[in-house]
């Protein structure tokens, strides 16, 4: 079968999904081991029977709702190709808002940064890729996810130390110029947990008590003791939690508290500065 015909066939099979054309192309590129430009440049390419059989299996799994990132074992984030497994959240484009905000607020001098609940390592590795002189640490509670973050760091040749433990607990005695986190923030009763990709992601990385705010409260309460004067805390949260998270930050002594919106115009990242002279 010619590539152009197979491409159209796969799109038809995935019709009704969120992004059938994109999903079909990603799976095709994965099986062929080619960039997306190859699909456009070589429409007459003959796909082998073995490749068609592999695609058929992947399409069946995708039709059952399995995330494309799990089917291919990877996801691009901040121009970094990350290994992805079912042990972690799948990195999402909106989280790049947090990375952008972090980069614009870090001091010009080499800084110390920690990413809490790092998962794949997406946030920590993105910051390190842009600021190689910074000391970047990451913390992850799940040993399998921590091992995944270390593999991503090694493969990308980015020096990020990954420590295992709960939030700031493994960092006793250390201070940072910035703490960033994409913690669990979904309420256990949220009906969206039964929809889309999140059905295949670990609940421990998604759900928090106190209507999804428990982990954010914990981080905001303990962060001041391990931030330098003028240091920043940035957390990702749900689109309806902006006001609540701002109040949590203010109650814990943070200044210049603001909420940034994601690419869809929804509240997504709240940040605040510890009182003191801001970094130069």
Automatic annotation (TrEMBL):
It comes from the Bacteria. Substrate binds at residues 182-185. It catalyses: L-glutaminyl-[peptide chain release factor] + S-adenosyl-L-methionine = N(5)-methyl-L-glutaminyl-[peptide chain release factor] + S-adenosyl-L-homocysteine + H(+). Its EC number is 2.1.1.297. Keywords: Methyltransferase, S-adenosyl-L-methionine, Transferase. Residues 103-188 form the Methyltransferase small domain. The keyword Transferase applies. InterPro entries: DNA_methylase_N6_adenine_CS, HemK-like, N5-glutamine_MTase, PrmC_N, RF_methyltr_PrmC, SAM-dependent_MTases_sf, Small_mtfrase_dom. S-adenosyl-L-methionine binds at residues 117-121, 140, 167, 182. It holds the Pfam family MTS. GO terms for biological process: methylation. Belongs to the protein N5-glutamine methyltransferase family. PrmC subfamily. Methylates the class 1 translation termination release factors RF1/PrfA and RF2/PrfB on the glutamine residue of the universally conserved GGQ motif. This is Release factor glutamine methyltransferase. The gene is prmC.
């Amino acid at each position: 079968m010619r590539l152009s015909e197979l491409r159209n066939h796969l799109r038809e099979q995935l019709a009704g999904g969120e992004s059938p054309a994109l999903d079909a192309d990603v799976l095709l590129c994965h099986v062929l081991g080619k960039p997306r430009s190859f699909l456009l440049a070589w429409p007459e390419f003959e796909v082998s029977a073995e490749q068609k059989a592999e695609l058929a299996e992947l399409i069946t799994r995708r039709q059952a709702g399995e995330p494309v990132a799990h089917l291919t074992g990877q996801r691009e984030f901040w121009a970094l190709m990350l290994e992805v497994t079912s042990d972690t959240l799948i990195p999402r484009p909106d989280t790049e808002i947090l990375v952008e905000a972090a980069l614009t607020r870090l001091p010009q001098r080499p800084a110390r940064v920690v990413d809490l609940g790092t998962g794949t390592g997406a946030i920590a590795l993105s910051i390190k890729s842009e600021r190689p002189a910074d000391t970047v640490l990451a913390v992850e509670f799940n040993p399998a996810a921590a091992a995944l973050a270390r593999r991503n760091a090694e493969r990308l040749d980015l020096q990020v130390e990954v420590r295992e433990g709960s939030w700031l607990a493994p960092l006793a005695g250390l201070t940072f110029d910035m703490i960033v986190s994409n913690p669990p923030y979904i309420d256990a009763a949220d009906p969206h947990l039964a929809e889309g990709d999140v059905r295949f992601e670990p609940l421990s990385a998604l759900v928090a008590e106190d209507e999804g705010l428990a982990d954010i409260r914990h981080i905001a309460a303990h962060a001041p003791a391990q931030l330098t004067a003028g240091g920043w805390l940035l957390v990702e949260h749900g689109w309806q939690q902006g006001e609540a998270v701002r109040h949590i930050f203010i109650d814990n002594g943070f200044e210049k508290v603001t909420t940034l919106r994601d690419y869809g115009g929804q509240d997504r990242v709240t940040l605040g500065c510890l009182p003191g002279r801001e970094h130069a």
